[in-house]
Amino acid sequence: MATETPTQRIPLSGHRRTRYGDLALRGITGLASVVLGLLMVALVYEVAHEAWPSIQEFGASFLTGTEWNAVTDVYGARDLIWGTLITSLGALLIAVPMSIAIGVFLSELAPRAIRTPVTMLVELLAAIPSVVLGLWGILVMGPFVAQHIEPFIINHFGWIPFLDGYPSNQGLFMAILVLTIMVVPIVASVSRELFTSVPSDLKQGSLALGATRWEMVRSVMIPQVSGGLVAAVMLGFGRAIGEAIAVTQVIGGSNTRPDNIWGPADTMASRIAAQYAGSPTALSKASLAYLAVILLVFSLIVNLTAQLIAARLQRQMRGAA
Amino acid sequence: MQKLRSSALVAAVLAIVALAAACGSSGSSSSGSGGAAASNDKALNGAGSTLVAPLIAQWAPDYNTKAGVTITYGPVGSGGGIDAITSRTVDFGASDAPLSSDQATACKGCVQIPWALAATVVTYNVSGVPNKLKLTGDVVAKIFNGDITSWNDPAIKSLNPGVNLPGTHITPVYRSDGSGDSFVFSSYLSAVSPDWKSNVGASTQPSFPAGQGAEKNSGVAAAVQSTDGAIGYVAVSYIAADSLDEALIQNAAGNYPEPSTDAISAAAGAVTGIQPDGSIPLVNPPASAADAYPLSTYSYAIVPKQSPKAAALKKFFTYAVTDGQSFGPDLGFPALPSSVVTHDKQVIASITS
Fold first, then answer.
1. Is the pLDDT of residue B27 over 50?
2. In chain A, which among 149-188 make CB contacts under 8 A with chain B?
3. How far is CA B165 from the centre of its chain?
């Protein structure tokens, strides 16, 4: 996203041959960036263009409408926005502590013999195609969780709001679990890199001052890389918001908001993936494009917020140092 | 700070582009003139319905030896097929539901040719309950409306005396993508249940009030199989392929026919009216057809009235609705009634280049 222009240009110098090389380098890299920029512009144009009939028809009330009905041709995104936020935030709630723990373990605590294979496994997890994860969610995780984990939670913690109801193979909780699996490798591998980058004299220093390992992690390492961690979390959040295929496979594409976290729901991305092909009315197609516009705005906000927080934390760190 | 400012700039530029898109949009739909592949008369490309895919898979090699034309078919689903023929990226589309009025407008002069007969079947999975449970359309409507929520409901019990029904919670499973089966299913429920008609209605993507969605026939089959207490609907060929339990639905005559080729043929024989748009709605056939299966349907080929490959398409469709029908019964597709074949030939004759 960040399209920074170099603030300082290194003047061309040296032999003719290398100068041509520099020119070619600048030309090719510049062209690639321009093409990407144009692509982005074209994409936004096309999506907004397609969504326009729906934007005209429903305007801002699209955000609060609860109905999605191709028979009456009335569309509203409230429950889909809600589903997107609940599944993404739910996934982050589980994934972030887990990922930071993995990062700390791999950078600080793990013996070398374990470090390399586990690092590779975490990175491999990120490479699994989402459709495969979704299939695994349907065939393996769904039935297992619905038969063993959900009944346990419902029986013992059913008095907590949203944790009551019937176990379900497909629904919000399954989507949260699948998204967690997708977010963990992203956040974990970034935070491992970050923790490894903390200067060892800082770590050694705090240990020498009598800090325990835990105190060192908590008061030196995590604050030192907090800006990067926020960026990593936001990266994971963006991934979770936009994921369509795996979520479509496990969330159960419902038209209503469930009474509990087990029941079927739907997200914006999953609704677009499931219904765009062959949507029965012109307005339903435009409304799906409207959802895409909202998703674009969402990811833009996530990106900007991440940069804002990261910048502020970095300034704080510099001020503290 | 610098970075933040430039990000905000990017956001602003994109917002302006979006605005420009909005203003530039004068209601005219984009694309449409893509031009179908190469205008090669020795190859026809199609896409759409997964339901007729097995039948086309039989036609393709046979037609290739007879006419020397290669048929390539992508089973992307009825909705995908409609989109593909609307943008003219294929030579013909195939859909289990007729075009909606918006789709027909977007397709710009497409005709639909009923070229296969099939059925949608209600399936369920309740441990301890035998196959071929009897249900009425009204009870199915109440289940999918969320009014009947357990399998030992008196309404189900009274239809199945002697069957020991457990109190398992009912999970209705429907198609989350646009589907011909959803169209057949919701049209049938609209025909038999006034409540369903006013609350939900008929569509390829109806807004189901209760239950959970699954993608494609395979997704519904998998969801039903893996959920105790689930009930769903799939194309007839999936019942045998996935050895699913099928519910027998009461027809207008009060009988509970199985979705056999004979029962589907009986429904097709009882309905002769052809709608102005070229569709032939088969659901809930009249009581005069005592053994007619109530959720029968035609599957349609969709083709532009003007096509650069008109000659090749006309020959292929003529083959499909005549000689090609002989492959059907083995795959569960009964042969088309002769009145429909006659109608199809007229429609095929109207295609021009």
1. no
2. 166, 168-171
3. 31
